[in-house]
Every structure is written in C-alpha cells, then in structure tokens.
Amino acid sequence: MDLNSDLGESFGAWRMGDDAAMLDIVTSANVACGFHAGDPAGILDTLRAAAARGVAIGAHVAYPDLAGFGRRNMDPSSRELVADVIYQIGALQGLAAAAGTRVTYVKPHGALYNTIARDERQAADVIAALRALDPGLVLMGLAGSPLLDWARAGGLRVVAEAFADRAYTPDGALVSRREAGAVLHDPDLVAERMLDLVRTGEITAIDGSRVRLQADSICVHGDSPGAVAMARAVRQRLESSGVSLAPFAGMPVS
C-alpha cells in the first residue's frame, strides 16, 4: 500500500503543514505546482527533502485559485485547462530535476480533483494534457470514480486513491467540506478506518452504510490539523498489522 500527502503548499511567509515531518512518514508526495499554493523556493525545498528520503513525487495540479486554495469550482475552456495542466507539470518537472528527482505521477487537487472524478469533459482535458506531455505519467484519482476508466481508455495508467481523513457518501464520493463531519480528526479512528479498508476493501460511509472501495494509495491531507499525527498513526497501524508500505511508482499499476 502507498501512503501519500499533499505537500509544498506553503507560500512565502504563509506556512502550511509540516513537510519535513510528513516526508518521514509517507511514501509518495503530491507537490503543489503554484496554482493553488506553493512558491518556487518552497517547492524546491520540499522536492529536495523528498529526494533525500526516497519519496516518490507527483504533480498536484489545480485550478488557478490561490485565494481559494484551489477549492472553488471553475469552468475553464478545454484550451485553458489542457494548457494549465501541462504548464504546472512542466514547472514541477524542472524543479524536480534540479532537486535530483523526477515526477512520476499526477494527482489533481481540490475542486479540480472532485470535478474530473465525474465530469467527462474536464477529465478528458486532464487526460489529454498528460498524453501530450508524457503518457508515462500515472494519473491518481478517486477510487471508484468514472475518471479511472476514462483514463485507462485514454491509454494512461491509473492509481485509485482513498482518503484517510475525509468522510464518504454512500455512493463513494467525498462528503463536501461544507457539511459537518466531512473532515476527520481522530488519529486512532482514522488509522483503524484505513486498516479496515485494506483488510476488507470497504469503508464506512457517513450514514453508517458500507461502501466497496478498491484503493492502491491512502491520502492524509498535509494541511489538516494534526496531519502528522494522523499520518503516523495510519502508518504504524498498517505496519503493525503486516501491511507493507511503498511508493506505488514501484508497484504494478492498472
């Protein structure tokens, strides 16, 4: 199993999360590309720290929305969205090369992530961007979402992701952050929930029902309160139960 987190999101004097601590825990890092968060110097620092620890690098591409942290819905034209995604990946590839590492996958962020999980037009634009720049890049997306099938049909390899610190609806979508209980904060609860997912292939939805969820990677958001404690609890719980953790870049992906 892979364990990932969204990192490189600090911006100038505005500090977001604890990248150094998270990089000692996770196996893959989704690094901001400057559109929703992150500045070049900070992103480079995060990439160097990840390279030193052997953590795999993904481009955390987003809508151009610094003020809203990439969490506001947008409807860019296909021309704009394809170019925006290519631009962000290209920038991160350059910084990664300077840090002695490379970008192996792409994980969209925030509103873009949630939109392309089910919006075929915007999903096709993101897929087209990867195919135009580097078809060898793996696309990480929401487990159980149509996006994964669309990407496979477009010739991309995909990795299905589950969220440790987010609640799920009965149909396998993420509960909106506007709703109570959408974000989970108890490290022990989160860790047990992820062990249950790995063992059973199911997760308990917000209404108590069980949802089938086949995932290759688990995410703990780096900006969540107590993120480091949650990520550490998840890792310790999985490893103590015999689950090995490694970057999915070194595993077979679909």
Quick structural summary:
The chain has helices at residues 19-23, 40-53, 78-98, 110-116, 120-133, 146-153, 187-200, 227-240; strands at residues 2-7, 28-32, 56-60, 103-106, 138-142, 158-163, 202-204, 210-212, 217-219.
Account of the 3D structure:
Belongs to the LamB/PxpA family. It holds the Pfam family LamB_YcsF. With 254 residues, this protein is α/β, with parallel strands linked by helices. The chain has one domain (2-250): Glycoside hydrolase/deacetylase (TIM Barrel, Alpha-Beta Barrel), CATH 3.20.20. It has eight helices and nine strands. The chain has a seven-stranded parallel beta barrel with strand order 1-2-3-4-5-6-9. A two-stranded antiparallel ribbon has the order 7-8.
Pick out its properties:
EC 3.5.2.9; hydrolase; TIM Barrel; alpha/beta; ATP-binding; 9 strands; Glyco_hydro/deAcase_b/a-brl
